[in-house]
Amino acid sequence: MRHHRQISKKEYYRGVQMLPYDLIKELAIATGVMLVVVLVLAAVLSSPDEPSVTVQSWAKAAPLDYVTTATAELAGTAESAAYGPPYDQHHQGDDVQAIGPFAPQIWFGVHVPINAATDYVLQPLSESSPGDPQLAAALTEYRSASHAQQQSWLTAYTAALGKATVSGDTVNVPQGHYGPLPTMMDAMLELGRSGAMDGLLLSGQHFYQTDYSLPLMFMASGGYLAGLAHQYKMEGNQWGMMNETGSYPGQAWLWLYTFWYQIPPFLTATNADLIVVIIMGVLSIVLMLLPLIPGLRDIPRWVPVHRLVWRNYYQEIARVAASRQGPAPSATSG
Amino acid sequence: MTEQLAARRDAAAPTPAAPDAAGGMVEEPGWTAAVRRNLARRMPLTELLPSTQPAYVGSWVYVFGVTTIAALVWTIASGTILAFMGSAWWHTSALGHFVNSVHFWGAQMFFLFMVLHLWGKFWMASWRDGRAATWAVGVVIFLASIVTAFTGYLIQENFDSQWIAVNAKDAINATGLGGFFNVLNFGQMYGIHVMLMPIVVTLLVVLHILQVRTRGVVRPIGDPYTPTPETGGDTPEGRLEA
Question: Which value does ipTM take for this structure?
């Protein structure tokens, strides 16, 4: 990079005709015009506001998906139960993204701890069991059973849910040896449908609560939220990150980031997120340092778009040169 | 008493550069005076707010920067109203929804014109003649604006917020930063969007404008009259070095 001596603008503009230009007036006019533009757009096109999903609306609209998810949380097989850091430290297998030994997800550890079985099933049921002897007995039976017994019940019940039917407010599974699970899951469904789960998942040690990690991870583990996202074309392989509900532009500026998820190998790679983030980080740095990169910084000279931008100026230079009847100064794009 | 006050006032008053014994000028000592001298030299008002521009500043491309600022003004103004009325207001009030729509389209216009501005400056190679830092700060504004808009989408308190949070968490978690920038934590995202990022973007925009006004508008590529490297300018061939 060539070092430039700081020169005054007067010196820099030497030989250039200076014309009156009112910057403040330009800003004022632009601000006024922009106000009209956004007011008209807001009045005519409005903005998207599809209501949020609650645990209650989920349990009512898709009770089987809700119960299946709750069962998976208890079994430790749901997304939120087997995610790994930053939610839990026990699962560091295929769900954790890494490139060889480069595994920042593991390095930074757990900062939003989630114990899926306890947080999503056992604790909410415990809090609602007083006054319900049948549920209290079912919880006692489940907790006192061996791990192998619990897994046997969960495996059988999970398989039975694949053949379950929904009638009214209940999920019916074929007869089988599920231990206390039917009682527990009936109670879970009741907690969900009544809206109690929404409150139970947010209640903590504090009166004020603005952290929705628990309920969002619960809903993310089910199929209902993703099903709605699919309808709105917001899933990852549908250019999801840059889309939004309705016919609105969304975050169109994320097109390049979203683009990678639409093509192999990122479409199926288990560590696609980490690779895409690294690619976009590198590209961002390249864009920032573009003036220092030979080749890239020469593109504007090779592709003469600037001839359009400054066409009047170039024409004026040619005209002046012609009027002097001398050789025209070089004003080419190179 | 009056004399004491006058003496104290005189002692506190800034002393202009005074001639020393050899006849040279002695600059007033101190950090404050040094900063003031530096600002006066680098950013005189006539340079910051010039009333003339080079004749080559005659294209619509030059308007995209100021329209970006204009969109930012209304985005911040509508966002301020939304912040005062509370996060749930716009879901239950027709007026609130309209203000949210102004905020939404203000942000869309901000990005539209910022991208047009960025592309325009790229094809004009506006980083020439010592303007690389101006370009770099512009790119940082673009990136900071993406974070701002992203956090805005996360705090809408509707389905979009829920799904974008659920969808985006994996990328941030993969970097290991998910525990510190938790997109599922509404309170954290709200603070970042409403407080932190507007300050960051606004300060960066002010810095960017100061950079542009201090250096002036870059000369056309291949301008035969551009000052030579010896005078600090580009070469007659229009080389595109920073």
Answer: 0.91
